[in-house]
Structure formats: C-alpha cells, structure tokens
Amino acid sequence: xxxxxxxxxxxxxxxxxxxxxxxxxxxxxxxxxxxxxxxxxxxxxxxxxxxxxxxxxxxxxxxxxxxxxxxxxxxxxxxxxxxxxxxxxxxxxxxxxxxxxxxxxxxxxxxxxxxxxxxxxxxxxxxxxxxxxxxxxx
Amino acid sequence: xxxxxxxxxxxxxxxxxxxxxxxxxxxxxxxxxxxxxxxxxxxxxxxxxxxxxxxxxxxxxxxxxxxxxxxxxxxxxxxxxxxxxxxxxxxxxxxxxxxxxxxxxxxxxxxxxxxxxxxxxxxxxxxxxxxxxxxxxxxxxxxxxxxxxxxxxxxxxxxxxxxxxxxxxxxxxxxxxxxxxxxxxxxxxxxxxxxxxxxxxxxxxxxxxxxxxxxxxxxxxxxxxxxxxxxxxxxxxxxxxxxxxxxxxxxxxxxxxxxxxxxxxxxxxxxxxxxxxxxxxxxxxxxxxxxxxxxxxxxxxxxxxxxxxxxxxxxxxxxxxxxxxxxxxxxxxxxxxxxxxxxxxxxxx
Lengths: 138, 349
Fold this sequence. Notes:
Order of helices and strands of chain A: EHEHEHEHEH
CATH class of the largest domain in chain B: Alpha Beta
Strand order of the largest sheet of chain B: 4-2-5-1-6-7-8
Structural class of chain A: alpha/beta
Strand content of chain B: 5-15%
Largest interface: A-B, 35 and 36 residues
Order of helices and strands of chain B: HHHEHEEEHEHEHEHHEHHHH
Distance between the termini of chain B: 56 Å
Oligomer: heterodimer
CATH architecture of the largest domain in chain B: 3-Layer(aba) Sandwich
Mean pLDDT of chain B: 83
Low-confidence stretches of chain B: 222-249
Distance between the termini of chain A: 18 Å
Structural class of chain B: alpha/beta
Number of helices of chain A: 5
Number of strands of chain A: 5
CATH topology of the largest domain in chain B: Rossmann fold
Helix content of chain A: 40-55%
Radius of gyration of chain B: 23 Å
Strand content of chain A: 15-25%
Low-confidence stretches of chain A: none
CATH superfamily of the largest domain in chain B: P-loop containing nucleotide triphosphate hydrolases
Shape of chain B: globular
CATH architecture of chain A: 3-Layer(aba) Sandwich
Helix content of chain B: 40-55%
Number of domains of chain B: 3
Number of strands of chain B: 8
CATH superfamily of chain A: Cobalamin-binding domain
Largest sheet of chain B: 7 strands, parallel
C-alpha cells in the first residue's frame, strides 16, 4: 500500500495583487512531503470549495492580504460544510488584525498565521490537525 | 465527512461528486476499499473517449486542456455538450515526495460547471505507480459517466509512452522556439502522436516548427505500413486504381495532422476538436479502437502483476538481506546480476 499523502489547497481568494507569501507556503508544504494544489490569484470562495471537493483535500490554506477575510473566510467554511467537507481544516495566512483572530477561530478556522510565521509551525499544525481528524474518522 | 455506511461505488454511479473524489483518493493510495470499488465499477467502464495530452514543459498543455474542455462543454450549435473529466499529472519531488500541482491555475474557465471534474495527481514516481493509479482514476471517471477524459501528462521521459498505451487518442503538443527546431520531439514521441499540435502558434518560428514536424512525419509515420512486404506494395497499387476499397482491405492508415493553436486566445480549438472526433471515428471504423483497448488491458494487467510480484517478493525477503546483498555489490564483490540471482532464488552462487 502506498503511504497516505496529505493533500492541501493553497488559494488566494479575493482581489489581492500578488501571491508571494502563498507561493512560499506552498513550496514549504511540498518540501514537507505534502501534495499542494495551487490555484493562483483571484479565486472566489465557490471556486475554492469546488476545487477542495474535486481534489478531496485534507486542508485548505487561504492567503488574504486585502482585509476582506471576514467576508471571504466564513463563505468558504459555509460552502465546505454544504459540500459535506466539514472535516477539511482551514488555515489562514496574510494580514489579519489581532482582534479578528478569535472570531475566525470561533467560526471554525484551524489556525491563523501572520507575516513572519516560521513555515515549520504551519507544517506542524497541519500535520497534527489532519491526523487528529483522520483518527476521528476511524 | 462521508459516513462509512455510504456505498461509494453506488454513489459514484449516481453522480455523487464527493464520493467520486473520495474514490479517486482511495485508488491513489492503493487501499483495499479502492480496489474493491473498482472491481464493482469495472463493468461500467469502457464508454469514455480517453484523450492524452503530452509534450515538453512550457508548451501550454494545461491551457490547451482548459480550452478543449471548454469547447466540449460549449460546442458549435447543434452538437451535444460532452461531460469532461480531466486528470492532470504533475511530478512529485524525488526528495521530499511532495508535489506542487499547479494545472488548475490554467483551468479557471471550467469553474462552476457541474459537467466538468478536474483532478490533479502527483506522479508519486515509484515503479509503475503512476500508470497503475492513473489508469484506475480514469476508470473511476469513466464509470462516473464522463464522455471524454482528458489526461495531461507530466511531459517528460517515460510518461509519454505510457500515455499512448492508456489513451485512445494522443495529442503531442509542441511550441515554436523551444530548442533548435524540435529538440523535444524525438522519434519515440513522434510515433505516439495521433495529432500534433503546435501551440503558441502566434510566436515567431512557427513555420520552421511546422516544416520540421511535417518532414519528420514523412520519414517516420504514415506510409510505413505500406511497405511491410512486397505483396503489400502490389496491393497498394491495386488500391490506387480502385475507387472504393473492398471490405477486407487494409484499413485506412491514420496520418497525424499538424494543427496550429493559440490556446490562451482559443484559436484553432474548434479545428483541434474536429480532428479529435475524426480520429475517434477512424479508430472505430478501422477496428483500431478494439486493438488499443486490448493492448491497454494487457499493459495494465501486466503492470499489476509486476507490482504484486514485486511486493510479494519484497515482503518475503528476510530483514537486512537486501541491504547486505546491495553492500556486496557496492564493494564490487559480486555483480548486480549475481546479486539479483541471490535475492530472487535465495542461492549463494
């Protein structure tokens, strides 16, 4: 049997102008042995949820710099649930004001990472939450 | 989460996309559930037209797949839209085993269309693993009722030959200005082409690329089978005189067309689509469809047998045995052939 790979989507919802940070994270996850589906700039929450479904991912990483996270993130979570993918972990990176972080975590986000977060932290958190979620499913 | 009570094969046949996605994961991971589901779905396969898209990196394969799928979904008036499954394979890192699968970036036009299902696959480069898993994934999409399955390869090395074994119709994609003339097109890849596509045809040098391709095609491809034996050659002149070949004559030989496209602007896509349809027609009329199906099944079976034998042999090997024999080869005490004898027969020659 082939070992089970962690599959992650790295996506940029909304109208951000660049994806430097998202690419750095994508590459770090790849180097950690994960399969990273990279979808590029200007994705709608619908596109992200659809890709998450077709690719049967374990986690979704959203990079948001525009300040629209309180609109975009709940919508992604809602669509994932509607598709029967409530087990998929959602991680947020980018520019997120401190006061928004507790609200995001309460709404079901698994982790929020600001600029300067070591990629090792993100990798560790994804591994932990995905293996916990798989253990629940057994 | 899909509950464990859900009958995945049943749900896949009923059009449940989440079940299909989960099944594909099971197939990729080689789980017993996956094999069991494929066993039950196998009788529902064999209906889809499998189209392979290969060519060097940077020739625009993903953009071409995007446009082609879009055309299948929105064809010229009077034609029925086909349901399109897409399998896009990207390489796994040989060091970490991870992968960045970026083909969806070029396939945004297909978002939101329930008649399209896109799955990215990492090559997971182990012995034949790619082909075995890809073929299973294609079977899952076939059983799920997709009429056309576009399979985009990594575009380097061995995969090109594998795709020709898997697909009914193989497109080889080239672009002007990649190396002098057509570095990437070696005899092998040219031979597997059913249709040659020069993408990015708005670039300078397209005439040279096309001329070089046509020259190589004349050398390598279509007339070859006419000269198998002197009897065939005589037969051939007969055919020239006869307006309509009678049944039992050599079926028409497919001569790969060379087409120009600019995928990012949708130019040449309609012509490419009709060329693919023509090839499909040719396959069924010439009996080649059945021949390709047979050879595909044969390849697949032999790969599965190889993999199983390999695994059984490895599982039966005493711990440390492989390492110690390898060490002996490394120290130049025995040759690799002797080592293989030792490992397989257990003898000590």
